[in-house]
Amino acid sequence: MDRWILDQFSALEADVQAAYEAYEFHAVYQRVAQFAAVELSALYHDLVKDRLYTEAANAPRRRSTQTALHRLAQGLCQILSPILVFTSDEAWEFIPARPTASVHEALWRRTRFQRPEPEVTLWRSLFDVREKVLSVLEHARQSKTIGKALDAKVQVKLPSELLRSLQPHQDTLMELLNCSQLEMSAGDEATATALVSKADGAKCERCWHWSVDVGRNAAHPLLCARCASAIA
Ligand SMILES: [Zn+2]
């Protein structure tokens, strides 16, 4: 997820540089507004908040996301500094370990992060499956089978070749779906199909995920195993 957003951000930076060089400030504004609304707000922030809020403070996945967010915060302040002169400088003051006192003194170095082609293809497949499952989740919500995605167990059937490539990334797909349980198996259809039911077990009081291991740790009877080890 962090590599995905840094790749998207690098593309944004390239577009912004081209727009500034052509004095097309409206294009900068449009591109940044779109990035903030879609990639950042609707996707990235929504999908990484679980690991930020619930994983152990020093868990590698959490640190990775913090690193990406630090990079994004700096870059966005710098991109916007010619347009939002004061606001970007005020935001800059809140960035830990910022390289200069003012954003206007900092050199702008583009991130230039690009994922290799196989990774781009893999993520396209993950997002395709996500889109299909989200509509099934939405139906389940409307019919009151579940309240929200975290209440759900999702059973996905995939064409066997797709299953082979996505199986090692089950945790990533589960994070993309923001559901509590995910089962993947081979199906006969040419495309992904999904079945949504109420998740097994009980709801963890800390992370709100449903899990069959809630209560197994006597010291933390209301927590799932993941949370019990995170606060240990
Ligand atoms: Zn938990």
Structural overview:
With 232 residues, the chain is mostly helical. It has two domains: 104 residues, Isoleucyl-tRNA Synthetase, Domain 1 (Orthogonal Bundle); 84 residues, Class I aminoacyl-tRNA synthetases (RS) (hypothetical protein PF0899 fold, 2-Layer Sandwich), CATH 3.30.2320.20. Helix content is 55%, strand content 10%. It contains eight helices and five strands. A hairpin with a 6-residue loop joins strand 4 and strand 5.
CATH superfamily of the largest domain: Isoleucyl-tRNA Synthetase, Domain 1
Helix/strand/pairing class, anyone?
mainly alpha
Binned, the helix content reads 40-55%
Number of domains: 2
Q: How many beta strands in the DSSP annotation?
A: 5
Order of helices and strands: HHHHHEHHEEEEH
CATH architecture of the largest domain: Orthogonal Bundle
Gyration radius, in Å:
21 Å
What is CATH's topology name of the largest domain? Isoleucyl-tRNA Synthetase, Domain 1
In order across it, which strands form the biggest sheet?
2-1-3
Hetero groups: zinc ion
Oligomeric form: single chain
Distance between the termini: 26 Å
Average pLDDT, rounded to a whole number, is 96
- For the record, the CATH class of the largest domain is Mainly Alpha
DSSP helix count?
8
Strand content: 5-15%
Low-confidence stretches: none
Specify the overall morphology.
globular
What summary fits the major beta sheet? 3 strands, mixed
